[in-house]
Amino acid sequence: MTPFDFHLPTRLVFGAGTIDRLGELARERGFTRPLVVSDPGLEEAGHVDRALGLLRKAGIACEVFDDFDVNPDAAMVDRGVAFAGGRGIDSVIGLGGGSSLDCAKAINLLLTNGGAMADYRGYGHARQPLLPMFAVPTTAGTGSEAQSYAVIADNETHLKMACGDPKLAFAVAILDPELTFSQPPPVTAAAGFDAIAHAVETAVTRRRSPISTLFSREAFRLLDGHYQRVLDDPMNLAARSAMQLGAYYAGVAIEQSMLGAAHACANPLTARYGLTHGLALAILLPHIVRWNAEGCADLYGDLVGSGASAGAASAGEASAGAAPAEADAGEYLAARLAAIGRSGGFPADLRTAGVPAEDLSALAEAAGEQWTGTFNPRTFGSREALEVYRCAY
Ligand SMILES: [Fe+2]
Predict the structure, then answer these.
(1) CA of 323 to the centre of ligand 1 (A)
(2) Model pLDDT for residues 133-144, shown as the tens digit of each residue
(3) Integer angstrom CA distances of residue 129 from 6, 106, 116, 171, 344
(4) Separation of 261 CA from ligand 1 center, angstroms?
(5) Domains in the chain: how many in total?
(6) How far is residue 89's CA from residue 258's CA, in Å, rounded to a whole number?
(7) Same structural domain for residues 213 and 262?
């Protein structure tokens, strides 16, 4: 078995209504003036007012930074650092989707360590301790609450920079599934597919370990089994709970095993055309699974074995019952993911998504340079990326 070093630095508080413990937990950790990082959509949904009320009740005054968008870039982080400077901030709370959580980590990093986001690309470049930090996710998708990476886009290229450091881990993550009721249906669909892609990619990377595999498989079982249900019945608490916990487990798996070629191919599509991350993954992942299957059909077989019984009925395809023979596992999983993508309402191919055919070579060059591709089980570079893009076109 592959040796591993497993440590969960984040205290997890999970369950319906657990947001009510925000003030108590913040006081317990000695927060007196947190910076709450939350996007404007969350303020409209009432989550920010609720969080501020809970903190106020615990005697804690806050500052709120909300001047950023989805796929936050380095300039947005710089604005957050400028906002926070001189306000006596002693802690940070990321409240919202992956953008809010990543932005919170990035602002904390630059506030305490100085420099620019690009200086922290890679892993382990923070020299000074960070401010203590909480995560309160309101979507079920990125699993950022479980990771010690801030994913921030470059201002010019819009390509994502993964900036990791053990100090970027949240002290506490509050996972209250009731907060995810406010996700609009397209966000539920796209964020949910992102989490599924995390479960599938982490299950086969070169970095995977017995412990990451445990989280990948349980994540896939929960996400595969509840994706359709959460789309059909958005106020179903059991389904929202399963999706939120599944996304968190997949985030824990990423922390151990990293991601693969589907994310390497998806990132340039978001950078160039602004395609939603989950949408890009929904188009690409079935093709990546088929392309990878030759070398890891057994691992895909284990994954569908963990998810098929609960999930096959929900997507209406790749029928339930006995798991497929190992040789067919890649094709079975690819068909299943394509069916999930259809139920999420995503376009079937890159052509339908509006990607110009003449751009595929340039996209493949960019995909081949993505760090995440180096962890893919099958050797992946620009040539291989072009092969995948052509299959997905
Ligand atoms: Fe992702």
Answers:
(1) 26
(2) 999 999 999 999
(3) 21, 13, 16, 13, 41
(4) 11
(5) 2
(6) 32
(7) yes
